[in-house]
Amino acid sequence: MEKEHASVKTHCSPELQNKWIEIQDSLKKSLKIEDDFSWKIPTSEVQNLEINTENLDSRAILKYVGGVDVSFSKTDPSIACATLVVLDLNTLQVVYEDFSTVQLDIPYVPGFLAFREAPVLLDLLEKMKKGSLPFYPQILMVDGNGLLHPRGFGLACHLGVLANVPTVGIGKNLHHVDGLNQSRVRQLLEAEGNLSKDVFTLIGDSGSTLGAAIRSTQDALKPIFISVGHRVSLASAIKIVKMSCRFRVPEPIRQADIRSKACLRIHGLS
DNA sequence: GCGACAG
DNA sequence: ATCTTGTCGC
C-alpha cells in the first residue's frame, strides 16, 4: 500500500515546482503593469459621438475584447477544450470563436495553473495572429488571476507576456495570497458604509495592491476578483471589466465558458 | 511542521 | 475544473 493520502491534494515533485518558479520569476521580468496600448477606453456615449469638438485624440477606441477558458471532460478529466472568443465591446456579441480539444497531462497545482492551461491557449492566439484573422483582441480577459498570485505572476500575466497582449485576470474565487482570505473580503464587503460600494481594492499584508474585488452586478452578492495581467493598469482593467458585464461573470469569459462546454458536448464528451 | 490554495 | 434539483429572472 503506497503512502497515498486519502485526500485529493494536488502535488507534484518539488523539483518540478522549483523549475516552474524559476520560469515564473524569469518571465516576470517582462511584465508591464501599466497601460501600454494604443487605443483609448470608451467613456460615455456622448464622448464617443464625433460631435465632440476635442478631436485632438486620434487614437482608436477599444472595441475587440477577447476571452479564454478551458473546460474538462467529466468522463476523462485529462481531455480539455480550450476556447478563444472575441466580443465587440459595443454589443457584447461574439465576433470570433475558436476551439482546441487536447489532452492535458500536466496536473492543476495551485499557483501553477499556467503550466497546465497556457500552452493550448497560446496556440489559439498564435493561430489567430499568424492567420491574419480579423478581430484579433486588443485586450484579453483570462479565467484566472494575474498579480493576485503567490509570486505575482498568475495565468493572466503568463499568457500576456508570452503572447505580448494586454491581459486582465478574472477570478471567480479568491486565491488566498499575502494574508487575503474569504473572511477578510467578506468583512470588507459587509463593512458599514460599504453596502453600496462595488469596488474594493485588495491590499495584502505586504502593503501591495494585488487586485480588486468587485460586485459586477447590482444583485451580485458574490464578487469577482480582478487583477492586472499584462500591459494594463488596475484602474483601466476595472473600467473595461465593468463595461463587459451583463451578469456576474464578464461576457468574454462567460461566453468562452459556455461555448467551451458546448464544444465538449458536440464531441460526445461532457 | 501543517494547512490553505485560481482552474 | 466537475458531480447535481429546483428555482428565480429575463
TrEMBL record:
Listed under GO cellular component are: cytoplasm
Could you tell me which Gene3D superfamilies the record lists for this protein? archaeoglobus fulgidus dsm 4304 superfamily (3.30.2170.10)
InterPro entries the record matches? Endonuclease-V
Which cell locations does it reside in? Cytoplasm
| Family annotation (CDD domains) | Endonuclease_V (cd06559)
Keyword list, A-Z: Cytoplasm, Endonuclease, Hydrolase, Nuclease
Q: Name one GO molecular function term.
A: endonuclease activity
Q: Name the predominant localization.
A: cytoplasm
Signal sequence range: none
Highest taxon of the lineage: Eukaryota
**What is this protein identified as?**
Endonuclease V family protein
- State the organism named in the record: Forsythia ovata
Q: What is the lineage of its organism?
A: Eukaryota, Viridiplantae, Streptophyta, Embryophyta, Tracheophyta
